[in-house]
Design brief:
The chain is an alpha/beta fold and about 400 residues long. It folds into two domains: about 5-255, Aspartate Aminotransferase, domain 2; about 255-395, Aspartate Aminotransferase, domain 1 (Alpha-Beta Complex). The protein is built from 16 helices and twelve strands. The chain has helices at about 5-15, 40-45, 60-75, 85-95, 110-125, 135-140, 165-175, 185-190, 205-210, 225-240, 245-255, 255-275, 295-300, 315-325, 355-360, 380-395, and strands at about 80, 100-105, 125-130, 150-155, 180, 200-205, 220, 280-285, 310-315, 330, 340-345, 370. The strands form two sheets. A seven-stranded mixed β-sheet has the order 1-7-6-5-4-2-3, with helices on both faces. Helix 1 (about 5-15) packs antiparallel against helix 3, helix 4 runs parallel beside helix 5 (about 110-125) and helix 12 (about 255-275) packs parallel to helix 16 (about 380-395). It is globular.
């Protein structure tokens, strides 16, 4: 298409490539390999002298439509899809870093991302340095020496901490670092990291993009030269390829992404306001609420407060579990960004393995709940939460000795 379209249009039309059959929906090319007209074409393909699909681990027409649509939505020059969101993070980091390099990361990362930075990278001789993401002075100190890469997540999982992406990107570039932003919580609709100075953006397409609990997927977006020369060889040869079927499902999910995210944000804001009035709740974190410590930064970087609400229930783990077990409408699940509302207890699930000391530094308590707000009627959600909070406040009698 020659015209530049707005995000809602790109979500429906971007990257559409019809076959000679003229199908309305995106075609699903469920094939592992491709054939050639002759041996000469096969040779020319492997020499990169002609453009022809070789093998679905390298590229596939359905996956290519998803990659182009996401690149158009993000405003990126190029995109490569991966099998999962963690495959996207892993590929972005390991394709670029080598032994002797140095990475600086915000401390508030998803549990598996934290493990890669704290445990995996040092095994390969890569220095990992953590900073508190909201503290620019810590970023300045850590980036006062040459650095190969910066990794951050904003808003963070699960405490919805904001990082000043523009300020950190400026410091990182002065240190020679490539800036990678995990933008899953904000989605490409609410925050534009590349416009704020980031070099690479990573996503779990499993979350809002599919957003209906069906398939796994991931994506890495950035400049064409870096994607083609650094990332692509790593993906082609290590094999974290996205299934064409999963790509097709995500493509269809993207068509309703804006409708879903807009409504989920409205629901989340209302739920956060409700929770803030409950005596059983000691703290509510939602980026656009006036009591969020970084509301001003959130409103400068994001167009809405997002679909996640994090809060602390008085009484610790026991009260928290009573709350979760009393939920009837909201499901207990560690997923997020789904059409269905989902609640998880980070200390015993997503962030269990980062350890109690690190959880304490991140502010994750025994009573912390991460709530991914879905598309249900918000009045029904609030009623369900109210009933569950009532249950949380009632201490269970001790068994007779």
């Amino acid at each position: 298409m020659s015209r530049k379209f707005r995000p809602a249009t790109q979500l429906v039309r971007g990257g559409l490539s019809r076959s000679h059959h003229g199908e309305t929906a995106e075609a699903l090319f469920l094939t592992s390999g491709f054939v050639y007209d002759d041996a000469e074409q096969a040779e020319a393909t492997f020499k990169n002298e002609v453009q022809h699909y070789q093998y679905s681990r390298f590229g596939n027409p359905t996956v290519a439509m998803l990659e182009e649509r996401l690149a158009l939505l993000e405003g990126a020059e190029a995109c490569k899809a991966t099998a999962t969101g963690m495959a996207a993070v892993h590929a972005a980091l390991l394709s670029h870093l080598k032994a002797g390099d140095r990475l600086v990361a915000s401390r508030a990362l998803f549990g598996s991302c934290h493990w890669i930075v704290s445990t995996l990278l040092p095994r390969y001789g890569i220095e990992s340095v953590f900073v508190d993401g909201a503290d620019l002075e810590q970023w300045k100190g850590a980036l006062s020496q040459p650095t190969a890469m910066v990794l951050l997540e904003s808003p963070s999982n699960p405490m919805l901490e904001m990082v000043d992406i523009a300020a950190v990107a400026k410091l990182a570039h002065a240190a020679g670092a490539l800036v990678v932003v995990d933008n899953v919580f904000a989605t490409p609709l609410l925050q534009r990291p590349l416009e704020l100075g980031a070099d690479v953006v990573v996503y779990s397409c499993t979350k809002h993009m599919d957003g209906q609990g069906r398939v796994l997927g991931g994506a890495v977006l950035g400049r064409a030269q870096w994607v083609n020369e650094v990332l692509l060889p790593f993906i082609r040869n290590t094999g974290p390829s996205l299934s064409p079927f999963n790509a097709w499902v995500v493509l269809k999910g993207l068509e309703t992404l804006k409708l879903r995210v807009d409504q989920m944000c409205r629901n989340a804001a209302a739920v956060a306001d409700f929770l803030a009035e409950r005596e059983e709740v000691s703290r509510v974190l939602y980026p656009f609420r006036p009591d969020h410590p970084q509301q001003k930064l959130a409103m400068a970087q994001m167009s809405a407060g997002g679909t996640l609400v994090t809060f602390d229930i008085r009484g610790g783990k026991d009260a928290c579990f009573r709350f979760m077990n009393a939920l009837e409408l909201v499901d207990v699940s560690n997923n997020l960004g789904d059409s269905k509302s989902l609640a998880t207890h980070p200390a015993t699930t997503t962030h269990m393995r980062v350890g109690a000391e690190e959880r304490a530094r991140l502010g994750i308590g025994e009573g912390t709940v991460r709530l991914s707000v879905g598309l249900e009627d918000v009045a029904d959600l609030i009623e369900d939460l109210a009933i569950a909070l009532d249950a949380a406040a009632v201490a269970q009698p001790r068994a007779a000795e």
